[in-house]
């Protein structure tokens, strides 16, 4: 997916821009610039797309582009009616995405990763640090109950991505959690996420607010 990114000159009202493709290789000025998404909305000239804008689902703090065959759902707290997680589901698995306020200098993922691993251990599961596309991630296993009451092992991959005063936490479930090849199209969806942090002050660790689109399906 190609994006047009704001240049430093644009921020001072001078005309110059470059384009961004979320794949991971940088070329040159005035050429296509490939970056390792997700990306910050402040780095993009969203108005430049016009009628060629990607089929984003605008969730306020996040712009997400599901692939064909994926369904977008919301996990909503029944009492507060706040969205706790954004969930993309497909035939082979699911991707859960949450965004949080983070320090200006980044590093929140390094701080919370051991906490997630400790919580997994308290629940009787395991969390092993492995190297992934975005650096250190957690390969998790935990025992859950099936509908008939029998036990089953649920695998998951928890990915953390530090951005500009935000951190994105993504969890892969199902086959993408154990099969790297099957995870590629899910990772592509994650790489194409645009984060809209906003300028307002927020406490580190607070979840960025999510706006429910009219056709979203809330799930508890």
Task: Summarize, please.
It comes from Nocardioides perillae. With 220 residues, the protein is mainly beta.
* Mean pLDDT metric: 82
Give the overall shape.
globular
How much of the polypeptide forms β-strand, as a percent range? Answer: 35-45%
Radius of gyration, taken over Cα atoms and rounded to an integer in Å: 18 Å
The CATH architecture designation of the largest domain is 3-Layer(aba) Sandwich
Provide the CATH top-level class of the largest domain: Alpha Beta
Order of helices and strands: EHEEEEEEEEHEEEEHEE
Distance between the termini: 32 Å
What structural class do you assign from the helix and strand content?
Answer: mainly beta
Number of helices: 3
Give structural notes:
- With 220 residues, the protein is mainly beta.
- It has 2 domains: 2-52, no CATH class; 57-219, Protein Transport Mog1p, Chain A, CATH 3.40.1000.
- It contains 3 helices and 15 strands.
- It has helices at residues 8-11, 108-122, 180-191; strands at residues 2-6, 17-21, 32-34, 39-40, 57-58, 62-64, 71-76, 83-90, 93-101, 126-132, 135-145, 151-162, 166-174, 194-195, 217-219.
- The strands form 3 sheets. It has an 8-stranded mixed sheet, with helices on both faces. It has a 4-stranded mixed sheet with strand order 4-14-6-5.
- Strand 7 and strand 8 form a beta hairpin.
- The longest helix is centred in the middle third of the chain and has 15 residues, at 108-122.
- The two termini are 32 Å apart.
- The model is unreliable at 7-35 (pLDDT under 50).
- Residues 23-32 have a biased composition (Acidic residues).
- Pfam families: DUF3710.
- Residues 1-32 are annotated as: Disordered.
